[in-house]
Amino acid sequence: MDYNALAELLFPDVTKTPDYYENLYPQRELPEGAKVTRFAPSPTGFVHFGGLFPVLVGERLAHQSGGVFYLRIEDTDSKREVEGAEYDLIKVFENFGVNFDESIVKEGKYGPYRQSERREIYRTYAKELVKNGKAYPCFCTEEDMQALRERQEAEKVTPGYYGEYVRCRELSLDEIKEKINAGMPYVLRFRSEGSPDNKIKFTDLVKGAIEVTENHIDHVLLKSDGMPTYHMAHAVDDHLMRTTHVVRGEEWLSSLPYHIQLFAALGFKLPKYLHISQLMRKEGEAKKKLSKRDKGAGMSYYISEGYPAESVLEYVMTLLNSNFEDWRRANPDANLNDFPFSIKKMSASGSLFDLVKLGDVSKNVISRMTADNVYEKLSAWAKEFDEEFYGVISKDPDYTKRILQIGRGGNKPRKDLETWKDAKGYMGFFFPEYFRFDEKPEGFSKEDIVPILEEFSEQYDTNDEQNVWFDKVKAVGEKHGFCSNIKEYKANPDAYKGSVADVSAFIRAAVTGKLNSPDLCIVMKILGRDESLNRIKKFKETL
User: Can you identify the CATH homologous superfamily of domain 18-121?
Assistant: First the structure.
C-alpha cells in the first residue's frame, strides 16, 4: 500500500502539516513544575455535581503550581448539544468561584476552545496517521455494524471491530478509490497492533500502579462527516494545548489502553492521569452511583436551594483530601485556597455523597461569615429566587444586617442557617410582612401567662444589658410562682408553677411568635420598645 497516496486521496484539502501546529502551539512558558490542567465537558445542558471533583482538582493542581487551568468545550457530537449550554456551564462554575484562565469567553494562545472549531487540526493529524500506515478508511454501513454486533453477541465475544471481524483493513488503494468514486461514505479507523493477550503496566496518580489489557480494537478516529470522535480530538487537543495532567472519572479507565496507544501512534508524550472514583450515594445498605435523577445531582440544585458556593466547595474538599477537616479546624478563618491540596491525600475508593454532611459544613461556613457578607450573598440569592423576600430585607439594609449580626463572632457562633432559603423562616418574624403568632407555650393557662407579660412590660427598658434584662425576667417569674434556678426547679418541680425557662418562653412567643429564636434580649433591642410591647399586647389578646 502506498500510504502517501492514500493520505492524499482521503485528505486532498489538508495542506498543513503537524509541524505547522507544533510551531503555532509551542510549549507554554511556565515555571518549572507548573501544571496545565483542563475541564473538558460536552455542552449537554446538565452540569453534574460530580463535575466539581475534576474541576476543583484541576484548578488546585494548576494554580497551586503557578500553571494554567483551561476550559475546552467538547462539542463534536452535535446530536447531544443543547443550545446555550456552554455559557450556562461557565455561569454555573463562576457561581461557585471557579474561573478558568482560558476558555471560550477568555481566549488564550491555544484556542479555539471549542472542538467544533478545530476540525482542520484534527484532519491534519488524521492524515499523518494514514501516511504512517496507522489509520485506514472503513466503508462498513450501519447495517453491517449491526450485523457484526449481533454475531459477536451470539458468539459471546468482546464486541468491536477487530481480528476476524474486520472487513476493510486490507482494502487495496484501487478498491478504496473505487468506493470513494462511487460516493460510498466511510469512517477513518485506527489500525491497532495490540493484542488482548498483552498487559500494560501503568501508574495512575490516584489509583497507583495498575495493569490494563492492551487495546486490540480498530476504533473510529473520524466519523463519516469528517468530525473526530472524542478519542481522536482529546488526544490532539491535550497535546497541542500542552496539558500535563488529565483529571477525569474512573469510568475512563476502560479507554486508557486505547489512549496510550493513540498518543504513541501520534508521537505525543502521554500526560499524567488522575482517575477519580465515582461519586456514590447510599440506598439502604447498598451504595450506588449518583445519577442524574438523584436529588442533588445537578449543580443548579445548589444554586436554587441557596447553598453558598463556599459551602459546596468546602464540602467537596472534605471528600477530595482526607486531611482537609483537620486543616480547617486548625485554620477556621483561612481562605479555602490556602489549603495545600495534595494528590497523595486523595482516596482511590469512591466518595460517598451526603447532603446531611453538606448541611453541617454549610452551617459552619455561614457562621464564620460577617453580617455584611451574609447580607450580600443572601440578598443576591433572594433577588433571583425570592423577589418578595428580597424586597423586604433590602428595604433597610442596616436593619437586616443588625439581625444577621446576632450570634456572630467568638469561638461559638450561632449556626442557624444551612442555606439562604432558611433565612426567611429564621428571621422573618423581625418583619411585619412575615410576623405571625405561630407557636404558644403549652401546659399554661391565660392566668399564668398574662400577669407575667404585663409586669415584664412595665419594667422593660431597651437600655438594659443582658444580665439586667434576665434578672428582671427571673424576678417577675419568682413573684408569680416560677423558679428562677433551673437546678432547683428540676430537684423539686412540684413546688413551682414552672421555671424561668417557661417565663422566657412566654415572652419569646409574644415577641417572636416562636418558641425558638435568637437571643431574646438582642431581638427586643432590634425590634425596639414600641414594637416589642405592641406585640406582647396583641399576644395577650390571642390567649
Answer: HUPs (3.40.50.620)
Specify the 3-state DSSP secondary structure of 203: strand
> Please, what CATH class does the domain formed by 3-13+122-276 belong to?
alpha beta
Query: What's the rounded mean pLDDT across residues 245-252?
Result: 94
Percent of the chain with pLDDT over 90: 85
The CATH architecture to which 446-542 belongs is: Orthogonal Bundle (1.10)
Q: Kindly list the domain boundaries of the chain, sorted by start residue.
A: 3-13+122-276, 18-121, 371-421, 446-542
| Predicted pLDDT of residue 67 | 98
Number of H helices, E strands in the chain: 23, 13
Q: How far is CA 280 from the centre of its chain?
A: 14
What pLDDT shows up at residue 248? Answer: 94
Q: In whole angstroms, what is the distance from residue 236 CA to residue 238 CA?
A: 6
Pick the most confident of 293-307, 335-349, 369-383: 369-383
d(CA 238, CA 38): 9
CB 205 within 8 A of CB 348: no
Whether pTM > 0.85 for this model: the answer is yes
Q: Report the 10 Å Cβ neighbour count for 217.
A: 21
Distance between CA atoms of residues 237 and 63, nearest Å: 21
More confident residue, 46 or 170: 170
CB-based contact 102:73 (threshold 8 Å):
no
- CB burial class (10 A; 0-12, 13-18, 19+) of residue 215? buried
CB 120 within 8 A of CB 16: yes
CB 306 within 8 A of CB 420: yes
pLDDT at 534: 97
Number of residues written out for the chain: 543
The rounded distance, in Å, linking the Cα atoms of 393 and 396 is: 7
Contacting residues for 91 by C-beta, under 8 A, at least 6 apart: none
pLDDT confidence tier of residue 483, bands split at 50, 70 and 90: very high
The amino acid at 293: R
Write the pLDDT tens digit of every residue in 90-149. Answer: 888 888 888 899 999 999 999 999 999 999 999 999 999 999 999 999 999 999 999 999
Average pLDDT score over residue span 156-163: 95
Euclidean distance between the first and final Cα of the chain, in Å?
A: 99
Angle at 506 between CA 505 and CA 511, to 5 degrees: 95
Question: Comparing 70-79, 152-161, 493-502, which segment has the lowest mean pLDDT?
Answer: 70-79
Per-state percent for the chain, helix, strand, coil, to nearest 5: 50, 10, 40
As given in the structure block, the three cell numbers for residue 307 are 447553598
| C-alpha angle 358-67-350 in degrees, rounded to nearest 5 | 35
Structural contact between residues 247 and 274, judged by C-beta atoms closer than 8 angstroms: yes
Cell numbers 501516511 correspond to what residue? 131
Strands 498-499 and 482-483: parallel
The answer to whether domain 3-13+122-276 and domain 18-121 are alike in fold is yes
> Residue 298's beta-bridge partner residues?
48
